[in-house]
Predict the structure.
Amino acid sequence: MKRKLSSVLLACLLLAVLLTGELLAGCKPSGPSGEDSSADTPTEAPATEAPTEPETEPETEEDTTPVAPFSVCLYTGDLENGVSGTYESLDEAIGAAQKKAYLGLRVCDANGRLVYAPYTELQCDLLREAKWVTDYVRENRFKYGDAPINPAMDCSAKLVSCDRLVEWVYYRVGFTDQPKSHGLVVSNFFPWCEQHGFEKITKVRDLQPGDLVGVRPSANGQYPEHVFMFAGPTNYERSYVGRGNCLRYDCGSDTRIQSVQPFNEPINDFMCAYRPVIHTGSLTKLSKDMTLTLDIGPACEWFVAVRDAVWGQDDMDADYNYAVTIDGKDYLYEESKGIIKDVETGNVGEVPRAFRTSFRDSSRRMFK
């Protein structure tokens, strides 16, 4: 009996030893070579098959390579109106545009894209409109005189003068914030330019096409007695404007009005000049039901409103109904109270009453 019990105990002991060995072996994994892999080495993730992504067309940048033929024209993107010639060679087209740069010509490719302009696009537009207005008043036999209404708005009186010519040209490129009665005259033209943020030019040599030039200072030196629009040097290749002749658009007399322009003559008794600056912006009508945003293009009136706002009023509980962006800066406008808020600073101001009236009329047309 004791022998059988000893045999059973021995068998149980051997079985326990075998089980213990297997458990220990399972708790201690080996590396690829059979060595202990518990050392401080990065652990590689198990290899998995990469997911298959659907094939897509590679993104390609828009091809902006100019395409022949090239048109020398007056309007960007319009190859049906105001085209003076077409060329297979881009160099020839550029040469043709430079030769008559005072007309506002530029070069567009076969797709209507602007590929070259002798000056900035605004300057080219100003020159184009100056040529159009001077041709129009000559062909329609305008006389020299003070128009009772801004001729850019109503030219039925058939009267034009040096200042009315320039304001007419500026109006046609977007500077529509002008007085209707009589328009801009020599005595208030410079303050209007400063109010709209135009750049002041004090040296003749710095003039550029499209600049409003004032000559012959008045007795009190506050304003010029004569103005005209500078059209560039007589030769495009000679950018420097010195004491010699240069080109101008000028309706300062009956003789000038009835002549083919531009004129080629020197600038005498120079006072100063102003260079137009376009202000751009957008207008968004805020509503619970919809949000409509419109590009307001040359935002001169808004620029003036912000500039002339009386800042410092309490915001109170204003319910702003328009979001406005002028030259990249954001504002909120409350129409009924005529207050505007600078989003960046939080300052609130009141816009001039005249602007509130014009804004009400224009916004009704825009958002009708």
Summary: Residues 144 and 265 are 20 Å apart (CA to CA). The chain is about 30% helix and 25% strand.
